[in-house]
Amino acid sequence: MLETWLTTTLGLEVPILGAPMGGRAGGALAGEVSKAGGLGMLGAARYTTPEWIAAEAAVARERGGRVGIGLMTWSLDADDTLLAAAIAERPTLVSLSFGDPAPYVPRVHDAGILVASQVNTLDDLRVADRAGVDVIVAQGGEAGGHTGRIGTLPLLQELLDATDLPVLAAGGIGTGRGLAAVIAAGAQGAVIGTALLASPETVGPDYARTAVVDAGSADTVYTSVFDRARHQPWPERWGGRAIANDFTRDFHGTDVADEQLESGYDPADPRRGVVYAGEAVGLVHEARPAGDVVRRIAEDAERLLSRFA
Fold it and tell me: Who has the most CB within 10 Å: 31, 33, 45, 285?
């Protein structure tokens, strides 16, 4: 068994977190990741309700016994209702990312819950460190959904040299080779998202799973056009990595009004809707249960690392 700070501290069998993907990671997916020995995370987007958090946390626990919850800090700055709802569920871990978590860390710690913070730059690390978080997630620009611009390996190396906090890696990790690589570099585990997107337990339309299976690693684009089309007020510094389609080919990189983006967007049409996915999408070749994906990644990583033990 791969034993790291993550497995020892959280009582996990494998050093893997399921990414808290807003709109995709509900209770079924989180529960299956936890059942496989990792920790599944619910993705609480800005439009999530407290009732959704409670219901999906119950599903996750029924399937896998434990759950984590990921929140967007910039959204909490306007309305922290979801933080109270998350704390009420007593999750194993709360992730506070995309913004300064300082106003919220004490409330989570007072409930006896550990806090992770996903960072995209060295400056982000300093902010999270000052806030008193327990674990850092180095999220590279290869990651799906909202992310930064620095690649995972350069960012991971920079953060590992800059902090004594435990660090996890996220972005571009879709097989045991990726998990083995980041653990060998000094990470305490990995956060995987794209590798799970074709799994039947994900939330979302069937066409999204098909698009993930069909896409290659060069078929993603880092863009803000989907946020603008849906009036999602993400801070400008975070774009989203998605599978390229007709919508991005028409509008990404063009000078177009938000009203035109809104009229051209269609969530029911695979050619015009959004499928957020990272560059590891090229490693997803079939729809497989999430638990099988997690177990295979962990087993392959352990086998690879044992060669050099």
Answer: 33
Is pLDDT above 80 for 1?
no
Query: How large is the average pLDDT for residues 267-282?
Result: 96
Distance between CA atoms of 88 and 111, rounded to whole angstroms? Answer: 9
Whether 18 has a pLDDT exceeding 90, the answer reads yes
Nearest to 285 by CA among 202, 215, 180: 215
Distance CA 86, CA 251 (A): 36
> What is the rounded distance in angstroms from the CA atom of residue 17 to the CA atom of residue 38?
6
Comparing C-alpha atoms, which of 228, 224, 190, 219 is closest to residue 277? 219
Measured in degrees and rounded to the nearest 5, phi and psi for residue 303 equal -65, -40
Which pLDDT score, from 0 to 100, does residue 45 have?
A: 87
Is 283's pLDDT higher than 70? Answer: yes
**Is 309's pLDDT higher than 70?**
no
Tally helices (H) and strands (E) across the chain: 14, 11
Domains parsed from the chain with CATH numbers:
5-203+284-306 (3.20.20.70), 206-264 (no CATH)
Instruction: Give Cα separations from 28 to 56, 96, 186, 195 (angstroms).
Output: 8, 22, 31, 16
Sequence-ordered strand ranges (E) for 205-277: 220-223, 239-243
Region 52-60: mean pLDDT is 98
The tokens of 123 are what? 């400056």
Q: Is the pLDDT of residue 297 over 90?
A: yes
Buried b (16+ CB within 10 A) or exposed e, 50-86: bebbeebbebbbebbebbbbbbbbbbbeeebebbebb
Residue 115 CA to residue 26 CA, distance in Å, equals: 20
